[in-house]
Amino acid sequence: MPKIQMINMEGNPVEEIELNENIFDIDINEHAVYLVVKNILANKRQGTQSAKTRAEVRGGGRKPWRQKGTGRARQGSIRSPQWRGGGVVFAPKPRDYSYTTPKKVRRLAMKSVLTSKVQENELIVVDNIQMESAKTKNFVQMLDNIKANKKALVVIADRDLNVMRSAKNIEGVETAMASMINVYDILKYDSLIITKDALNIIEEVFN
User: Fold this and answer.
1) What is the residue-wise DSSP string for 34-87?
2) How far apart are CA 163 and CA 140, in angstroms?
3) Which family does it belong to (predicted)?
């Protein structure tokens, strides 16, 4: 069972805790991670691109010149795709790119990325993160104390506006609630900072 040193906001060790081996110590499945990341990115696509086909472009109702005798190639419309201002062949149209990945695959991918964070020493467990007011300077000081990388995802148990607002203006730092994290967000950041309460929620959900 993997163990990790839990620290406080000053960076001082509090206690050594045991992580759930079913979540933080599994055989990493890279393909499951790939499938879930691909799914997340597909669901983010707006799908609003649109171009006009030759049927939708204005004009071109009259045949440009007669069929034979001019010495030029036969043409039926000045709005054919080969003409300047003509329609687009197989024009893209608004569509929905979203789809769902099986729940088992999503759970496996989440466990895989959490395990990778432990193996790469990028997981930081903090006993509690509290901000008396929304102060960016205090949050930056905390990140320095716990030796977090510049790109960090801070996972908290509940919605805490002071914490969220304190981190909002720090480049490369994002906050999220334990119930809202996803595989793509965890992979994007170099440090994964989790409070003790958020860790309990994650272990309860994914165990």
Assistant:
1) HHHHHHHHHHH---------TTTSS---S-SS-SSSSSSPP-S-TTSTTSTT-P
2) 11
3) Belongs to the universal ribosomal protein uL4 family.
Q: What is the DSSP letter of 29?
A: -
Listed by start position, the domains of the chain span 3-45+99-206, 47-96
10 confidence band (pLDDT: 50, 70, 90):
confident
The vertex-104 CA angle with 98 and 108, nearest 5°, equals: 100
What CATH superfamily classification does 3-45+99-206 receive?
Ribosomal protein L4/L1 (3.40.1370.10)
Q: Round to whole Å and give the CA distance between 162 and 136.
A: 10
Q: Give the DSSP per-residue string, 85-118.
A: T-PPTT------------HHHHHHHHHHHHHHHH
Q: Mean pLDDT across the chain, nearest whole number?
A: 91
The alpha carbon torsion through 75, 80, 86, 91 (nearest 10 deg) reads -170
On whether the CB atoms of residues 146 and 7 are closer than 8 A, the answer is: yes
